[in-house]
Specification:
With 229 residues, the chain is α+β, with helices and mostly antiparallel strands. It has helices spanning 6-15, 26-43, 59-65, 68-77; strands at residues 17-20, 50-52, 82-92, 115-121, 132-134, 144-147, 157-160, 170-171, 179-183, 188-190, 199-207, 223-226.
């Protein structure tokens, strides 16, 4: 597996996220988007813009979750080993235009061990079609979430008391196939899809290997990829 520079881990520790260009080729993005559409048609709740357990029903996504192009950089930021937990498709489309609210993922898995996620758009992602937005360094603070409610029923909570300035926010305008690794403590969301275009993304969630916690048992595709040293 390729070795990644220690600067990657330093950036991740400082900002709570790091960006890796060109992880997937355009042809791979096309193939995975076609597969994502199949999974959504066959398995997703009608109307939802988020679908979890993709690797459990899709061999291409199962293979992708363990791809050395993902696991290599993850090893650089996860010194205690790498375990795949779960993945999900999150998409925006001509009828899914709402922004993803500011949130922290660890709220959704309280009292479990730390995790991080890898967000990869399968369409070029821009401010106009709902790309990921992040608040660098926000993973170093504790945040509270309050109930809100999206029309799709996804993302029911948002961060309250956000004291960052607009200029602090990074709007991640990136080409399809670029990966963003981010901490489950990082405040993140998305721009609205004002362009009304497709913006499909696959998000894999990883944690250090350990004995299963009760939470882990809900994720049948979980797998240790790099054992603890
Ligand atoms: O793709 C998006 O709009 C954001 C997804 C996200 O923040 C998440 O699933 O935690």
């Amino acid at each position: 597996m390729k070795n990644f520079p220690s600067s990657l881990a330093a950036r991740y520790a400082r900002d709570g996220f790091c960006i890796l260009p060109d992880v997937l080729t355009p042809a791979e993005c096309d193939a995975l988007k076609t597969e994502a559409c199949r999974v959504l048609t066959e398995h997703a709740q009608p109307g939802s813009s988020v679908h979890v357990h993709v690797a459990a029903v899709s061999a291409p996504f199962r293979t992708f979750a363990a791809d050395p192009r993902i696991v290599g950089p993850l090893s650089a930021v996860m010194p205690h080993g790498v375990m795949f937990l779960s993945d999900k498709i999150v998409y925006k489309s001509p009828d899914k235009k709402f922004p993803t609210p500011w949130h922290i993922d660890c709220f959704y898995w309280r009292n479990t061990r730390p995790k991080l996620s890898v967000w990869i758009p399968l369409d070029d992602a821009t401010a106009a079609n709902g790309t990921l937005t992040v608040v660098p360094g926000s993973h170093k603070k504790d945040w509270r979430m309050v109930k809100m409610g999206l029309p799709s029923g996804d993302f029911q909570y948002e961060v309250t008391g956000g004291d960052w300035r607009e200029g602090d926010v990074v709007t991640c305008a990136i080409k399809r196939g670029t990966a963003i690794i981010f901490s489950d403590r990082l405040v993140h969301g998305s721009t609205p899809n004002t362009a009304g275009q497709d913006r499909y993304a696959i998000i894999g969630t990883y944690q250090a290997p350990a004995l299963d916690e009760p939470f882990d048992l809900d994720f049948p595709a979980r797998k240790i990829l790099v054992p603890a040293a």
